[in-house]
Amino acid sequence: MRNISTLPVFVSVIEQGSFSKAAEKLGLTKSAVSKRITELESQLGVKLLHRTTRKLSLTEAGERYFENALVALRAAQEAEDAATELQNVPKGILRVSALMSFGRLHLAPMIPAFLKQYPRIELHMTMNDRFTDIIAEGFDVAVRVGDYRKTVSTAKKIAPLHSVICASPTYIAEHGLPASPAALPHHNCILYTYHTVVNEWVFFRADETETVRVSGNYQVNNSEALRESLVQGLGVGRLPTFIAGEDIKAGRLIPLLDQYVMPHKILYAVFPEKQYLPEKVRVFIQFIIQNLGGEHPYWDRWKDNAE
Q1: Using H for helix, E for strand and C for coil, what is the string for 81-150?
Q2: Quick one: residue 146, left, alpha or beta (phi over 0 = left, psi -120 to 50 = alpha)?
């Protein structure tokens, strides 16, 4: 147990891939980190790392030590969470991962209010659209879309994410309204390239499912860029309602084929599976659910006026 204080240093060196990056993350000097690892190897009597000028790699003993060090650190975190679960004032560093467009449009505007309500929390938010391994990357919670039931994470539903087919009034005035999904191949359809099948749109009505292959002169991997092309009258597109909602309310975009619905997804708050949920995580999840609107999020309320 004499080496337990060195565990976070060793794990950080492996996760960051270098002494300098680990030192920066831990708030130590590079020489201090190197000294800790050298002392650890000396005390254990084994070499844990192969060091070259370009990279670090684990020895066989190092691999075994790293695996067990991770388990020990998680156990220590569990103990800390158990001790602080009932604290009245949420505090500490809260590391959040979020989808880029959703984070910018909907999470970022509410962060100041959250931190004013919980001033002892220090929030670090990273926004991107790639898959995030929250455990390996050290996040407390991720706001993501997907099926997390088969992972070592726990997922709490935040809100449904619906999609809508829409176009601008200028495009509709020039090209007309599609009367049914079957008419969409005759329109310039702007495509979002992060979908599993880029050029197929699926529609449901009653017990019927209709799949349409569409095409157009613009494909893009960002929904906000796609939204800009639609507002400027380039074509017809499928957008998440969390992006299209304000434009629909303002009349900049017109929802099409509203007698049909499209497949929808679920927005989750995902956090490492733990017996004790840290209070800082609990209040963050509660705050965003309350402020987004739960099952009826505020960006979908344009539908209330349409019904």
Answers
A1: HHHHCCCCCCCEEEEEEECHHHHHHHHHHHHHHHHHHCCCEEEEEEECCCCCCCCCCCCCEEEEECCCCC
A2: left
Q: How many CA atoms lie within 13 A of 93 on its CB side?
A: 5
Q: Where in the chain is the domain with CATH 1.10.10.10?
A: 4-84
Element (H, E) at 248: helix 241-250
Sheet holding 163-167, edge to edge: 219-220, 189-192, 236-240, 163-167, 254-256
Q: Which CATH superfamily is domain 163-256 in?
A: Periplasmic binding protein-like II (3.40.190.10)
Token pair belonging to 161: 């994410």
Q: Which CATH number fits domain 4-84: 1.10.10.10, 3.40.190.10, 2.60.20.10, 3.30.70.1520?
A: 1.10.10.10
Fold adopted by 92-160+265-296: D-Maltodextrin-Binding Protein; domain 2 (3.40.190)
pLDDT of residue 12: 81
Residues of the chain with pLDDT under 50: 150, 152
> How much is the pLDDT for 132?
73
- What is the tens place of the pLDDT at every residue in 171-205? 999 999 999 999 999 999 999 988 777 899 999 99
Q: Which two tokens stand for residue 82?
A: 């158990």
What integer pLDDT is reported at residue 43 of this predicted model? 83
Phi, psi of 156 (to 5 degrees): -115, 130
Nearest to 166 by CA among 290, 68, 254: 254
Q: In whole angstroms, give the CA distance from residue 247 to residue 204.
A: 24
The conformation of residue 170, written as its DSSP 8-state character, comes to: H
> How far is the C-alpha of 215 from the C-alpha of 184, rounded, in Å?
9
CA distance 140 to 232: 39
Is the pTM higher than 0.85? The answer reads no
Tokens of 280: 């800082």
